[in-house]
Amino acid sequence: MIGTGFKPNTDFLNIEAAKINLDERQYVKVYEYLETSNPHIWAIGDVVGKQQITHMALRESKIVLNNIFSDNKRRVQFEDIPFAVFTEPIIGSVGKTEEQLKKSGISYKISQTELPRCSRGYIMGLKRGYVKILHNQKEIFGCHIIGEDADNLIHEIVPLIGQFNGWEIFLNTIYAHPTLSEIFTRLPPESKVL
Ligand SMILES: Cc1cc2nc3c(=O)[nH]c(=O)nc-3n(C[C@H](O)[C@H](O)[C@H](O)COP(=O)(O)OP(=O)(O)OC[C@H]3O[C@@H](n4cnc5c(N)ncnc54)[C@H](O)[C@@H]3O)c2cc1C
User: Looking at ligand 1, which residue's alpha carbon is closest to its atom 36?
Assistant: First the structure.
């Protein structure tokens, strides 16, 4: 499979006539409330060139509706958006990668485990499946899962990203047995990179 990237088709729209500016990559330039340089025109989705995934376009549509009709304007957040890659094995991911954390100079610990290590993974006969959480034992920075149900499992972590006591939830939550979600109780507080 080859991913060739996205290219906006804005060049033949005569967009200047609407007084809308494009950015340097020819995407529609939007500001903090998703308004364009023409205050009567708003833009969402792939054409703004940020997070080009359906759930982001849907979120942006709700924010724009709010911002058009309400004085209580909402900003859009383009960071820490979860995504799934529906390959075999499936990938689920949210938050920062190790590369991003290193670049930002944020120190972090790695906790990792494998799906066959929880009861359900064993019962299912899973031979592989990898879960990695990047954190500082208080805050969770990112989570990356490859394997069975990764696209669903990642949502256990989505609400915890950026929460100050996010890591503690694994100590306090009771997970139904036997589920793949129990894998989060099998995470050592810190482990070496494999
Ligand atoms: C192969 C592939 C797989 C993907 N898989 C996923 C996935 O699994 N999960 C996920 O979240 N996202 C996925 N995406 C991304 C997702 O499709 C887009 O992020 C999402 O559709 C963006 O919505 P949009 O409304 O901005 O644009 P679109 O859905 O592309 O809608 C734009 C519409 O505008 C129309 N249009 C274009 N130019 C003009 C014009 N001049 N006049 C009138 N109409 C025009 C187009 O025909 C189109 O109907 C995938 C994308 C691709 C290409």
Answer: 9
